[in-house]
Write a structure and sequence with these properties.
The chain is mainly alpha-helical and 134 residues long. It is 57% helix and 0% strand. It is built from 2 helices and no strands. The longest helix is centred in the C-terminal third of the chain and has 60 residues. It is elongated.
Length: 134
């Protein structure tokens, strides 16, 4: 049995007209996806990630009662990372202390200027009263 098709196998053309049933359409390709740019890593983010990954590995073995061994190079990396983090925290806390000192100093200077202006205002009022008293 030959299957029935809804269209003829050969297109019928009339004189003066060209019938093209099979128009060529170029294949549609998926649009090229623009690769998403990874956000720029902070300076110590790589070290933090490594330390966290190593910690997770160590924490997974908590149920084991035997001695846990850690590779010396990873241990050194963790130590240097912790020392770096500690030093950065110290620098940050020192900076906060300095900023607080600057803030307090600024308030003192502002209070001094305000007192000088109030004193000057009182003196001007006194001079004004004495001049126009007559």
């Amino acid at each position: 049995k030959i299957p029935q098709t809804s269209r003829p196998l050969f297109p019928i053309s009339k004189p003066g007209f060209d019938v093209q049933e099979n128009v060529y359409e170029p294949p549609k390709f998926a649009e090229a996806e623009i690769p998403k740019q990874k956000p720029e890593m902070r300076p110590y983010e790589r070290l933090e990630r490594t330390a966290i990954r190593d910690e997770r590995v160590v924490l997974k073995h908590k149920k084991v009662e035997e001695t846990i061994y850690l590779r010396v190079d990873r241990f050194r990396d963790i130590l240097t990372s912790t020392n770096t983090i500690k030093s950065n925290l110290k620098i940050a806390s020192d900076s906060i202390v300095k900023l607080n000192e600057i803030d307090v100093n600024r308030d003192k200077v502002f209070e001094k200027w305000r007192n000088v202006l109030v004193d000057l205002q009182k003196k001007l009022i006194f001079v004004d009263k004495t001049l126009f008293k007559r």
